[in-house]
Amino acid sequence: MLALASQPLLSIGDTAMIGRLGVEPLAARAVGAAIVGGIYWIFTFLSFGTTSLVGHYYGARDLRGCGETYLNAVFVAVLGGVAVACGGLLFAPLLYRLMGAGANIINAGVPYFRIYIAGAPFTFIFFASIGFFRGIQDTRTPMIIAFLIAGIHLLLDYSLIYGNFGFPGLGLVGAAIAAWVAQFLGAAICVGIFFFSGSMAAYRSTQWRVSIARLRPLFRIGTDLAIRTGALRGSLVFATSCAARMGPSILSAHEIAFQLFLLCSDIIDGLAVAGQALVAKYLGSGQRDKAYDIGKTLIGCGVVAGLLFTILFLTTQEVIAGFFTNSPEVKLLLGAGIILLLSLLQPLNGTVFVLDGLLIGARDTRFLMWAMLIGALGIFVPISWMSLHWGWGLTGIWAGVGALMFWRLLTLLYRFFSQKWLPGYE
Predict the structure, then answer these.
(1) Other CB atoms closer than 10 Å to residue 32's CB: what's the count?
(2) Nearest-5° Cα angle at 185, 183 to 186
(3) Model confidence at 7: pLDDT above 80
(4) Residues 279, 270: Cα–Cα separation, whole Å
(5) Which of these, 47, 208, 311, 395, could form a disulfide with 127 (CB 3.0-4.6 Å)?
(6) Which helix (H) or strand (E) holds 210?
(7) Please, what is the Cα angle at 237 between 377 and 39, to 5 degrees?
(8) How many other C-beta atoms can be found within 10 angstroms of the C-beta atom of residue 238?
């Protein structure tokens, strides 16, 4: 959970420093971050898929299989990262125009985006590496690396954006350079640990080669998770576009609520990652009962974690609104039920997140893909559209979020208790 918490904290710090440069740099960063975030979300299958596959081999005591899976995941990461980087460098102005950015935002944002996206191969290698470490039940190493890289990133931000510690003040371009360096260091540290650490020797007892047999399950899981994630991300972008058409105040309130939602999901995902790694290990070693039992324990933990966020949000509504905005209109929107609705969703969200991770660990990704497609495109998107055209406003959009999460809760609970995700189910 701590490792995942470093990401939203880094995002908040990065945004705050760029925000002091003015409205246009912040807007340029926001557009670039939205594009990068959409791409990177899809490629998180390198982390989740690698965790599941490596965890199964680890449970079966096949350490060579763990190493070969990681090396093949790195191959996919490099290939995909180079393709994304080349596409980003070539089509950066077009992507900004498609996002509706004006000329000034495009001029400020394109250099930032091109430098940032050039680090895609390093980020994808980092994703695969984190999946490998989690799969072999080593969560401490990725936690330490995540906080180290986040700290370096923020320090470089402060140095290169404003020109501190003898560095030139490069503004938004400085923020992009800081991100690129952090991405490079993250990948270099992970690969260095694998190839040069004595503790990794058993996993290195394999030849470097691309194996179709190792790639096939990664591609299957990756395809399922990419479609699932794409459906979710697309529905969220659609909801944001609906909020934007309702006015700037409603969009601002929606963005604040969405950032709070992401903060909770990223932190509670720590439980999901633990469940994913443990379930993969137990199923790899043939311990079906333990996998099922850990799932029941995780459901309880998810509910408790969600309740803690519910209490936190309900008791600090005014403080939260005041931290993010000085606008009376935005504060009124948040206080008119949005934070309350967000708060009440948290126990439900906690259960959904941990079950999602558990089923990924069991490689039940095809079910997750179809469930998300139906929920995101069949429930959330229509409710968002009706909220815009039928006058339901922001409350309607967040009711749609609640409907999506309730659908996911029902389908995930059914899948878990039916035990259809367990190997050998009849």
Answers:
(1) 31
(2) 65
(3) no
(4) 14
(5) 47
(6) none
(7) 100
(8) 18
